[in-house]
Request: fold
Amino acid sequence: MSFEEWEDYGMKLYRLIALEKGPTKLFVGGLHGNEGLYTAPILERLAQEDILVGEAIIVPCLVKNSKYIGVLSEEYYRSEAGMRLLQLIREYKPSFYFELHAYEKQSYSRLTDPERVNKMGVPNFVDLGDGILIGSIAPILRRKLTEHDFCMTIEVPKWKSESEAIKEKVLEFLRIGLMESQREEMMLEFRVGYPEQVKKAEALFHQYYRKRLKPF
Reply:
């Protein structure tokens, strides 16, 4: 495996390349506001892992202390952060895409609200346990990737982010994405580890996309 690290426009990027060819995976954190404070420590540790197949691009913090613009809005993708994200996707064309966010305690009920699809136009997140949430990515961004690509959002609870147990639980989930080369094998591992939660998240995905896309 080869390992590269560099900075571009103040954004640190790691590139892990395995000897065996396989899919390209993109892991991005710190997409807006101060979320990078909470996502960077986790993704920095992920960048120290070995990759057996394909390559992984890991961006611990896309932007530092930027103006908060929600990723569900068109405005975000016209901002510096959004344009930077779109450039990463255009350049690396990932088959697997993981977006790592961090949220405040008071946002939990809004993010997990079963009526979120009616209020916000997107499905609610599912709690894996300990406030770690999973769900689909913004529909605007989903359209920038192919129908065959795997795309998932993970939300980390800010008020628990210093806990080693929380960091390890998120890393455990991300490592599956890092190590597996086949979408179905990765989903199988997710289902084994979190059967009820992943089943619920898949059902929400199917309802929203009307089975036009495979979760996620």
